[in-house]
Amino acid sequence: MRKKLGSIVLIMVLVVLAVTGCGGKDQDTTGKTDDVVTGELQDGSYLVKMPVSDHGNYAMAKMEVSNGEISSFNYMEILADSGEEKKVNPIIIIQKV
Q1: 8 Å CB contact between 69 and 96
Q2: Domain encompassing residue 82
Q3: CA 64, CA 72: separation in Å to the nearest integer?
Q4: What is the DSSP string of 15-62?
Q5: pTM of the model
Q6: DSSP secondary-structure letter at 84?
Q7: What is the pLDDT of residues 39-70, one digit of tens each?
Q8: How far lies 18's CA from each of 10, 12, 13, in Å?
């Protein structure tokens, strides 16, 4: 009887640990963002650099706007340790022809 009770308690503890241990941080999953800007594009060069990720690299995007339209867009990932561009296939480069 004691072994059965011990086994049941152990199983319950493992189930509780599995359920609560797999939960992540609370994240906003609504998909809403406050960074969305609408309207006309202003001519110029734009650079966005994200913080270093858990993988040891950071994302960077460059965009050129001319005559109110995107003329080029380049996305790359940079290795934080060396500053070199991470080789990602494919590298996204969009240019208006």
Answers
A1: yes
A2: 41-97
A3: 5
A4: HHHHHHHT-------S---S----SPPPSEEEEEEPPP-TTSEEEEEE
A5: 0.46
A6: P
A7: 788 899 998 888 888 888 888 888 898 988 88
A8: 12, 10, 9
